[in-house]
Amino acid sequence: MRFMIIRRADKDTEAGVMPDEKLLAAMGAYNEEMVKAGVMLQGEGLHPSSKGARVKFTNGKPAIIDGPFTETKELIAGFTLIQVKSREEALAWLKRWPSIDAGGNVELELRQVFEDDDFGAEFTPELREQEARIREQGAKNRR
Question: Which residues form the YCII-related domain (predicted)?
Fold first, then answer.
């Protein structure tokens, strides 16, 4: 099972405040622990929403909305993608998040990633093959 750990934004992440050496070291140790355990697939921090944009479609027509976005509690500052055996195992990893992040006042969200079998018969063998090709190429693109 794959899960995404979503690190919610706060006033500091939205202001572009970079983590100090202590937090970078703590996050590095946490990430290294997950890699050694074979559960971490990817993890990245995100620039503030002031450098981002949204695209809203109305009747099929896109409109671009440049950041920043005002509702900080709805924004994402980073993510980690993990692969574990259960939701309980994923939650156990979340509980080990470095407590010094955001002065101990950080909000994380856990979301399960859809797997091929979740889509049922509608996800035909041809569509599964296409998805496998896309994932393979995506992995090559990351190298």
Answer: 1-107
